[in-house]
Design a protein that fits this description.
Helix content: 10-25%
CATH architecture: Beta Barrel
CATH topology: Lipocalin
Order of helices and strands: HEEEEHEEEEE
Structural class: mainly beta
Distance between the termini: 18 Å
Number of helices: 2
Strand order of the largest sheet: 1-2-3-5-6-7-8-9
Strand content: over 45%
Number of strands: 9
Radius of gyration: 17 Å
CATH class: Mainly Beta
């Protein structure tokens, strides 16, 4: 609950905006995938908080790192303790702006391309990112999706030499957010 309150507070910093222009979720999806000859690594997180301002294009996404679930408990333990240091860096955030917000009609059902410029913070390191995604409006609800790659070294995530051949240096990240109007 505290995470959800934090995301709302951060979103409200974007300005005083009419209620009908805000879309939010606290159960979005983020997954990542790494394909290697020895073993694929995949994890899912269904506790993602997000908010979009349909008028300005401002958005924020926040994810609790410990909420990623793996097929194998040992992978999840290593992910949290050895790589992400999730006690020290409990959250990852993406905050920025949909640059082509004027091309997206949140009042009309349709599928719209979205160009995003944002700051991505992972493992205590913040980098500027520019990505493409899709906004689907249907029945007054919004689905925002994007797939992009994250290079672990860019965020200070070290891979021990003992497993360097088992973990890809670049991870594919998929974001899938079903947002509803803030009431």
């Amino acid at each position: 609950m505290r995470t959800f309150v934090t995301i709302i507070a951060a979103f409200l910093m974007f300005g005083n905006i009419a209620q009908a222009q805000k879309f939010m979720t606290k159960n979005g999806n983020i997954s990542f995938f790494s394909s290697m000859p020895m073993e694929n690594i995949e994890a899912h997180n269904k506790q993602v908080n997000s908010a979009i301002d349909s008028k300005t294009g401002d958005f924020v996404v926040k994810v609790l790192i410990k909420s990623f679930e793996f097929e194998k408990a040992l992978m999840q333990e290593h992910f949290n303790e050895n790589y992400m240091e999730s006690d020290k860096f409990p959250n990852a955030t993406l905050s920025g702006k949909i640059k082509n917000i004027a091309d997206i009609d949140f009042a009309k059902d349709g599928i719209y391309p979205a160009d995003v410029e944002a700051k991505l913070t992972i493992h205590g390191v913040t980098k500027d990112v520019a990505e493409k995604g899709t906004i689907t409006v249907k029945g007054g609800k919004v689905n925002a999706v994007s797939t992009f790659n994250v290079t672990l070294a860019d965020y200070g995530i070290e891979i021990p030499n003992t497993v360097v051949n088992n973990i890809s240096k670049t991870i594919q990240v998929k974001v899938d957010l079903n947002l509803e109007p803030l009431k």
